Amino acid sequence: MQTRRIRWHIAVFLAPAVLVYTAVMIFPLFNTLRLALFTEVDQTRIYVGLQNFRTLFFDPIWSEQFWNALGNNFWFFLIHMLVQNPIGIALAALLSHPRLRFAALYRSAIFIPTILSFVIVGFAWKLILSPLWGIAPSMLDAVGLKSLFAPWLGKEEYALTTLALVSVWQFVGIPMMLIYAALLSIPEEILEAGEIDGITGASAFWKIKLPLIIPSIGIISILTFVGNFNAFDLIYVSQGALAGPDFSTDILGTFMYRTFFGFQLQLGDPHMGSAIAGAMFAIILIGVCIYLFGIQTRMRRYQL
Amino acid sequence: MTRKVLSLALMSTALVTSAYAQEATLTIESWRNDDLALWQEKIIPAFEAEHPDIKVIFSPSAPAEYNAVLNSKLEAGSAGDLITCRPFDASLALYEDGHLTDLSDLDAMGNFSDVAKSAWQTDDGSASFCVPMASVIHGFIYNKDAFNELGIEVPTTEAEFFAALDKIKEDGTYIPMAMGTNDQWEAATMGYNNIGPNYWKGEEGRQALIKGEQKLTDPQWVAPYATLAKWADYLGDGYEAQTYPDSQNLFTLGRAAVYPAGSWEISGFNTQADFEMGAFKPPVQNAGDTCYISDHTDIGIGMNAASENQEAARTFLAWVASPEFASIFGNALPGFFPLSSTPVELEDPLAKEIVGWREECESTIRSTYQILSRGTPNLENETWGASVAAIKGAETPEALGQQLQDGLASWYAPHQ
């Protein structure tokens, strides 16, 4: 009879990754959640249970800001879903067209903004849209549409949408690349079989390719969701921590930053900041769970 | 064996440190990274010439990050010996947490007036924890060439002020006033707190507000918003998206005639602008009214309580409080006016003009800085938003006053 040997090598090979991940991800995450349960009174930290969350959701001063940030976050996400992902899919469909010339050039050109720093993107677009030195007003003037120009980043009603579109411009390359890869993996035989049955051109896309890339679209949606609800950089770079004008571009990330680290005369409050971070974590967790259990399991998959 | 090696190592480090202790090195934490050259080339050499046994290192971090960086350094015990102090609550919190030392017993503190020290004292005034270094004064800087060209006299009353702006606007060569609302703080700092003291009568109103005797809904606190609302017509096209550097550039490029300013702009403007500049103080309502200026205590310097070089640090602070430092600092950084009671002779004409207002007008500090921005919602941040809303005409001045008052009353006992 043979005794089962303990396979040490599994533990040894897992250890570095597990240790690093625990130290830099799991521990800080749970420590932040723990911090949210405390508050500071007279320089001593005391345990208050869920009081911080009660303040965040029900105290009118905090809840107004929280719901405003959450609403803005949903709008930010919606713009990405309605603009970024359809455009990404359309670009991928065009790029995968076998007779398109310079496909590699277009692919790189569209993907390049993705690798730029937020600081550069935020600053460049601020200059482009600047009513004083920007090229946007003069370009509109050149085609006789100067009247359409407005200082978009400074107007409550447009600022968030403008920034969402800037972010779309930056990141449209990611859905494009993922969908492009998915489209390339569709075997020629299926398309040819479709052609024999009279399905060509646009209807080949809608009836054959699209159902086959639905799982990739699902992944892109969830990546967009997580990315958007963690977003902070672009807003901070272009509008500052107060996310002006009048908090119209305030999202959960900037709200958390302002609360946690303080701003100008407002001193930082790590405990309320952690409570907001906890709420962000919960929102993202719920969103991802809805997707994983509600949508992905029901998605139809085709064996290729 | 290992223990022996360890104790030897410890002993040798102890020896090394004590050998160094005779020549103390002081590190200064600051957010003024713009002033690095000034400290390295002028201030530190002047100090080291007098005190050859003390070395000083000026180590600034980015202004927006300073508070957060400093706090984490202090918590970790790695902060420098000397701490540049933000005014009011940020530094008060550091003192209360035991990071800053009480300096009330420093003889040189006698060189400063009570108003100068007020920004770095406990609420009851019993302990002072930073040596006041400089203040900034608000007013308007204008393009002298433009005023001469259009034949405009320097305005002293509000009516003259708006008449001048009308004239500039009518002519069309210049944007009447360079200010934007994108960064928000400009509207509050260069707008509301610039013209406001003339309405609420400086210290009188500010103290009454702190005591709860006046409310933000009172006419003297609401009227500045009504005046700000009139500014919108004179700001450039698209001022809603105009940032602070945009405004500075508009003015220094000679495209705008008037710049609502803080005196800290002087050195930058001197190098950028190639026209002659002048300054006028916030206009009063009627000719002959007493004028009030915002002479805001902005920078102080204190000692890290955990510093190992307490004696050397005290020597340095005493020197900072001396007239010699005031004269070097005031002249090297025109626009940051020394706070010491002995007057300093300034060379820069624009700085001299502005600091001269101290003789003619009553000084006060920004209304929201002391005590009133301690709670949530933060009155200073709310004032930014309110000033922008006033300029844009998004809300009536009365509604803004009510909103700020409600916010303040929600946490500040004297207003409840």
UniProtKB/TrEMBL annotation, chain A:
GO CC terms in record: plasma membrane
CDD domains: TM_PBP2
Compartments, as annotated in UniProt: Cell membrane
Ranges annotated as spanning the membrane: 12-30, 74-96, 108-128, 158-183, 212-232, 275-294
GO biological processes: transmembrane transport
InterPro entries according to UniProt: ABC_transporter_permease, MetI-like, MetI-like_sf
Keywords assigned by UniProt, alphabetized: Cell membrane, Membrane, Transmembrane, Transmembrane helix, Transport
The ABC transmembrane type-1 domain, residue ranges: 70-293
Membrane topology annotation: Multi-pass membrane protein
Family to which the UniProt record says this protein belongs: Belongs to the binding-protein-dependent transport system permease family.
Record protein name field: Carbohydrate ABC transporter membrane protein 1 (CUT1 family)
Organism: Ruegeria conchae
TrEMBL record, chain B:
GO cellular component, one term: periplasmic space
Residues annotated as signal peptide: 1-21
Domain of life of the native organism: Bacteria
Pfam families cross-referenced by the UniProt entry: SBP_bac_1
Subcellular localization: Periplasm
BP GO annotations: transmembrane transport
Keywords per UniProt: Signal, Transport
Database matches in InterPro entries: Bact_solute-bd_prot1, SBP, SBP_1_CS
The family this protein is said to belong to: Belongs to the bacterial solute-binding protein 1 family.
Described purpose of this protein according to its UniProt entry: Part of a binding-protein-dependent transport system for a sugar.
Name of protein: Probable sugar-binding periplasmic protein
